[in-house]
Amino acid sequence: MKMISKKRIICAAVLAFVFAVNVFSAEKKIPLKFDKKQVAKDLGKKPFNVEKAADVVVDMTVGWNLGNTLDALGGGGMNSEISWGQPRTTREMIDGLASSGIKTLRLPVSWAAHMDKKTYTVQKEWMARVKEIVDWAIEDGMYVILNSHHDCFDRPQKMPVCSGYYPNSVNYEESANFLVNLWTQIGTVFNNGYDEHLVFETMNEPRLRGTGHEWWFDQNAEECRDAAETLNKLNQVSLDAIRATGGNNKKRFVMIPGLQASPDSALNSAFKMPVDDAPGKLILSVHMYSPYNFAMATPGDNNFTSAHKVELGSMFRRLNNSFILKGYPVVIGEMGATNKDNIADRVAWFEYFLTKSREYGMTSCLWDNGAPNPSKSQGERFGYYDRRKVQWYFPEITETVIKSTKKE
Prior knowledge:
Layout: H1 6-28, H2 53-60, E1 62-65, H3 91-100, E2 104-107, H4 124-139, E3 143-147, H5 172-189, E4 198-201, H6 222-244, E5 254-257, H7 263-267, E6 282-288, H8 292-295, H9 306-322, E7 330-335, H10 343-359, E8 363-366, E9 385-386, E10 391-392, H11 395-404
Parallel strand pairs: 1-2, 1-8, 2-3, 3-4, 4-5, 5-6, 6-7, 7-8
Antiparallel strand pairs: 9-10
Helix pairs in contact: 5-6, 9-10, 10-11
């Protein structure tokens, strides 16, 4: 019997391993189905001036959300922008934000309703509208956070094609198809023409909609553990799709959420930040309407108390210890205190919230749904900026926000 050399055995084993890896990768590869002819390639050229996410987050200072606008779900046409009662966005609105001291525009955008249901191709007109508003803010010297907003599917069942995403293993494949096709298109349109002032955010409040765990993570519940694992994978494929578009997107700063964008979910060991070939570019994304009884619940608490301060301070410290000190700065993409006709306490809340979070280098973005006035029947009264008059509803809050977040 002819003897086979040890060297040949090793080479054969290596080749077999490489073949197995390639087969596995091919099986896992997510197809790009969108019509490339419909996607305008970014031909700009703008170098990055900041290399570390922590420096960008500090410079972002304070932000504001264009809420209930491009994220509205009033059909797939261009009028969806005004379908939830907000006016069409104008250059004057964005200029007014910038001149008042707002440094960051978080731009919530819902995409699924504006996609071809077979190819995932985003409507050219919709992409162009998003780009128009992004460019206004960038030209005003602002940072822009661009995301996928109300694209989390609304029922815990097998999703139809191009319905968004849902963080469970049953819907992983379709969710990955949606996110990879979406972020590849966004990354094609927004690339070398945008420096560090454009930040991507993979998803908004990904959660188990239609279940008892929609807003609460229970580490003892199998569906929650499955959701966390699936979301980790969805964040990874979204990031990989962004990086694969090359150019400036190989080093684009990207915000990563946990389930519900909840700090508690992010702090659970089930949540993992994705692996990234570009070091120091990832940011944790959380939302904080906290403490809930004061900031969100109606009637809840009208007074901002020392106990509320303790609760907030504790959460900021935990985020600092678990993420910031490990190289992942934090952006609080949504925050605010609903109007309960308690202006003095809201001012006190904003002052404490923003001053304390800035001590750890965090940036916070006001959530604005265009509803300023208190209501006994509706708790979410988060209107701060009058978009029609281009002025602030509560100047004392705005003054406190700007003062509390000024860079030293």
